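We were asked to recover a plausible sequence for a given structure. The inputs and outputs are reproduced exactly as logged, with field labels preserved.

PROBLEM: sequence recovery
POSITIONS: 189
GIVEN STRUCTURE:
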């Protein structure tokens, strides 16, 4: 086989692989993951922590976020995922960075209409946050039970959202502890 033939076939193979990956990402964007409406957490981020808040340095179990040691922590019933059902939610206000974190476990609505269970961490940037992000914007990350909501087993799924609560990018997620952010490995939308 001539060198130009090998180059041509190699180029074709690369184009086919990239097209397949893009097709998979587009398929995942329409069916994988869960539907989260962070409106209640966004609203809570605009209010100060309650007087009885205790101090903590982290939030979450499977989906865990480190916070400064003097962060305010409290729990209350709220609909953190926006599915219409309030669940016991742990909240942590990182006063140094001005970010509110919520953590809850329960049943979530999948993008494909089914339900799944797992743990959800929502982070909302408060007014005057140290990273200059729009107040009300943030991210959420979910640790789902194996095979639920079309999420690959052993991974976390998440989305970044704007100040209106609209998802901007979603995908397989890793929490960026250093920057109070999420890294989306398979981003789409």
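RECOVERED SEQUENCE:
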């Amino acid at each position: 086989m001539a060198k130009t033939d090998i180059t041509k076939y190699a180029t074709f193979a690369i184009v086919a692989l990239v097209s397949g990956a893009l097709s998979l990402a587009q398929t995942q964007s329409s069916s994988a993951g869960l539907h989260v409406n962070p409106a209640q957490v966004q609203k809570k981020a605009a209010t100060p922590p309650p007087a009885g808040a205790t101090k903590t340095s982290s939030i979450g179990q499977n989906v865990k976020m480190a916070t400064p040691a003097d962060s305010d922590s409290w729990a209350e019933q709220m609909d953190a995922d926006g599915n219409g059902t309030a669940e016991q939610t742990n909240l942590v206000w990182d006063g140094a960075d001005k970010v509110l974190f919520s953590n809850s476990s329960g049943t979530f609505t999948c993008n494909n209409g089914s339900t799944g269970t797992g743990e959800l961490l929502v982070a909302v940037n408060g007014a005057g946050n140290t990273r200059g992000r729009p107040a009300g914007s943030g991210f959420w990350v979910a640790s789902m039970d194996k095979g639920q909501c079309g999420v690959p087993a052993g991974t976390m799924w998440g989305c970044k959202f704007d100040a209106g609560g609209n998802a901007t990018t979603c995908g397989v997620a890793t929490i960026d502890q250093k920057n109070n952010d999420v890294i989306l490995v398979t981003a789409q939308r």
